[in-house]
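Q: Predict the bound structure with pyridoxal-5'-phosphate.
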Amino acid sequence: MSVVRLVLDGGALVANWRTLDRMSGAARTGAAVKANGYGLGVRDVVRRLAQAGCADFFVAHWTEAEEIADLVDPGCISVLNGVGPGDVERARALGAKPVLNSPEQAARWRAAGGGRCDVMIDTGMNRLGISAHDFDADMLRGLDIDIAMSHLVSSEEADNPVNARQLAAYRAVLPAISCRRASLANSGGVALGADYHFDLTRPGLALYGGVPNEAFAEIIAPVAHPEAALLQVRIVRAGDTIGYNGIFTAPRDMTVGIAAIGYADGYWRGFSNSGCFEHQGRALPVAGRVSMDLTALDLTAAPELREGDWVRARYALPEAAAQSGFSQYELLTGLGQRFERVWRD
Ligand SMILES: *Cc1c(COP(=O)(O)O)cnc(C)c1O
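A: Predicted complex:
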């Protein structure tokens, strides 16, 4: 019997995609599903989004493309890491698109026969991509390019002038690329307005309940709800401490529940003395240090709870990020393998 589970709201996932699709105006809306669908379970994510009408999926690794290639047309999967020397054969066999990130990758893909591909133009991230500074149309000569994309550095900061600079740099190179579609916006970019939408948007975080900024606060629904069973309920005497290094001291005799979840599950140590669980709406604050497999909760508000009762983490991502010091991205992608992933519709 599992003692730790991740309850996943499929309805909220699809509703978030539809919200982003509406915000994307005339552009189509794809989905970033790398890192196991941001930790939620990529096959369950892709199946639901494909059914809702999503037709473009972005992964990082070729293994991630292989994992979903039986669920969608492989030709609608883009592999963001591109095509290294050891990837050419599997890429051709699978039929997913490499995102060509350098003149070297473009030449490699052309030499391999040059099936359909995407390209990444670097407009300021200086991570992957062909630099807009030294872009030359000859680099992509003869290639069958579907999406010519770029990626925003600070899209969650609507007022940051780097957004407009990247938009201008991207627009400047686009006319020299013969591609079917242009794409610039991740989740944050979707809220920057029509200028940023082009033909296709590529949200990830907001699909899964992440809130890049205020523009998403009221309209994006949480999707992932970590839950754990209590393994033990105990009385801790006034003045005693709880857990490693004794960073919590009981101010009075108190009822404490030990939940079967810890940092090995992605419930990070940053939640020590700051995170919160709940049971039927009642708050159960984390008491002391989160350990690898266990987290102690103050059961003052629910003293009737017993071994085997389930509690749910308060995991609204902006708040949980502020409590823990981890980014919303890490709070999703870190969700561990011990969770039984339970989809509600
Ligand atoms: C991860 C990623 C996305 C999605 O970004 P979010 O901020 O999660 O919306 C889009 N495009 C590229 C190139 C990415 O690497």
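A: The chain has a mean pLDDT of 98.
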